[in-house]
Write a structure and sequence with these properties.
six-stranded antiparallel beta sheet; 104 residues; 6 strands; 2 helices; 25% helix; alpha+beta
Length: 104
């Protein structure tokens, strides 16, 4: 039996460009992937940094190669907030909205 494979957080310029095109938001994007013992993707973690320095962490949990659910975690006034979504796109749109509220 092999140990689960935990990838390091890596900067992904392509995802930052896509976020800019889709939502007109300048962000930095980092990604880490976690695999189970069978080398199947178990969790995808996307860290989105806003211009104001807020880190939004989207964790996509997978089962049988499909999205089980997605969480967003971030801090507001030193209080951690977490939201749960059934679809990744809904979580991503929520992050874009939260970043937009920061910029007001």
């Amino acid at each position: 039996m092999t140990k689960p494979n935990h990838a390091k957080l890596q900067k992904v310029k392509e995802l930052a460009k896509a976020f800019k095109v889709r939502y007109n938001r300048n962000v930095e994007v980092f990604r880490a992937l976690t695999f189970n013992q069978d080398n199947e993707l178990k969790e995808a973690s996307i860290h989105i940094m806003s211009k104001k320095g807020t880190r939004f962490i989207l964790n996509e949990f997978l089962s049988d190669g499909l999205t089980d659910y997605v969480t967003i975690t971030y801090k507001v006034d030193d209080t951690a907030k977490t939201s749960k979504y059934k679809r990744y796109i809904d979580a991503e749109i929520s992050v874009a909205d939260l970043i937009g509220q920061e910029e007001i």
